[in-house]
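From the pipeline queue, job 12 of 40. The input is one protein chain; the requested action is below.

Action: predict structure.
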Amino acid sequence: MSLFEDFEQFQRFKSAWSSVRIERTAEYGLFTFGDSELPYFLVTTSADKDRLVKIRRGKVTISRARIITPDTMHPELRNFFEEHEEAGLVNFLMSRTAAFSNLKLANESGPERIVTDTVEEAVAKLNQQLDAEEENGVAVLSAPAAMAGFAVFRYASEKVMSSAPDNIQEMRERGLLP
């Protein structure tokens, strides 16, 4: 791979990253050991003239390898992307950070429902609903429909990165790290 191909891939990654938004995040981090679940609502809009706004509920399960072997040292993504090209963009990121080295990320999403609101109105209604339910563990994401999987990946990856300091501290407290 040439230097220019890396640059082009980085530019595509940067463009995709900035096209999605995390409107509301869960207030807790990931477990140091075992599996963590990240429930979310995803609000998407189509690029066609109808500009249909759709809402989908889902969750990402993040599993850490119990025993790290050469077979479990590689990250794994399931059900995030439909296009092989989009998965390549994410592998570009994941291959450049140790935070994902032994993680398995699996996305499960429910059916989409069409709403008559704009993206902003749909996000506001979801935030009001979650506030009324005193639910602080569900995220709200928004993205163009073509970037739906990338939006969910961005949310999960930001939770992995923000949880890392607490996870490392817990491992130190348990005597697993110096």
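Job complete. The longest helix spans residues 148-173.
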